[in-house]
Amino acid sequence: MTEPQTSNAYDSLPTPSVLPKHIAIIMDGNNRYAKAHGMAKGQGHVAGKESLDPLVEYCVAVGIEVLTVFAFSSENWQRPADEVALLMRLLSATISEQLPRMKKYNICLRFIGDRSQLSPELQQQMADAEAETAEHKAMTLVIAISYGGQWDIANAAQQLAKKVEQGEMSAEQLTVEALDRQVQLADLADVDMLIRTGGEYRISNFLLWQSAYAELFFTNTLWPDFAAKELNEMMFEFSRRQRRFGKTSEQVESET
C-alpha cells in the first residue's frame, strides 16, 4: 500500500479560487495500462488501486467535501469471471487498506450500489467500515460498487411506489423533489465535477441523477497515471466555467 503523505506534498500546487464540493471519477483505463506496460492480465487494476491514495489525500488537503469513485458498475458483472473475482478481492483489500487512512485523515467512508449481489463477507466489511468512520467530518469518500445510475433511479422510484401503496403518500407527491430525496447520496451535495480517465467520452450509467448539472471532464490519461497535478488543472478549468443551471449569463452575473 502507498504510504500516506503529508499535505506538504501538494504545497507547490496552487488552489483555485472556486472549488467543487463534490468530485466524481470514472476510473477507466486499467486494462489498457496493463497491456501497455506488459503486465499480466488484471494487474492494471492493482496499479489503479494504488493511484487512489494520493488523490484522496490531495482532495482532503484542498477542502473537497465529497469524492466519489466508480469502482465496479452493475454492468461489470458481465466481465470474465476471473476478472470479476480479482476485482472483488481488490475491493476488499482496498477497504482494509483505506480504513486506517480514513481514521488518520478524519474521512467518512461510504458505499453505494446494489449490495445484494455482493458476498456476505464483503457486505459486512463495507458495513463495518461505514460504522467505524460515520462521525468523521474532513471529507466523505464514496466508493460505488455494483452501482448503476439507472438502477439507482429505478430503486428510488420503487421505494416511493411502496409508500404510495401503503398510503404514506399520494401519487401526486411523486415529484422530482421526492425522487431527489430518495436516490443514493441524497444527503450530500450533487456532483459538481464528473471526470472520466482513459480517453472514452461517455458517463457509462454513473450517477445519472446526481450529475444532472455536473461539469464534465475527459482525459486520455489512463487511471493508474492520473495524478493530483492533472486534477488540479481540471479544478482550475472548473473555476473558470460559468455554471448557469438554466439561467442566462446575465442573470448569473447579476447575482454575483
Task: Explain what you see.
By secondary structure, this protein is α/β, with parallel strands linked by helices. The protein folds into 2 domains: 22-147 and 191-238, Decaprenyl diphosphate synthase-like (Undecaprenyl pyrophosphate synthetase, 3-Layer(aba) Sandwich); 149-183. Helix content is 43%, strand content 14%. The protein has 8 helices and 6 strands. A 6-stranded parallel sheet has the order 3-4-2-1-5-6, with helices on both faces. Residues 1-7 have low confidence and may be disordered. This is Ditrans,polycis-undecaprenyl-diphosphate synthase ((2E,6E)-farnesyl-diphosphate specific). Substrate binds at residues 29-32, 41, 45, 73-75, 77, 79, 196, 202-204. Keywords: Cell shape, Cell wall biogenesis/degradation, Magnesium, Metal-binding, Peptidoglycan synthesis, Transferase.
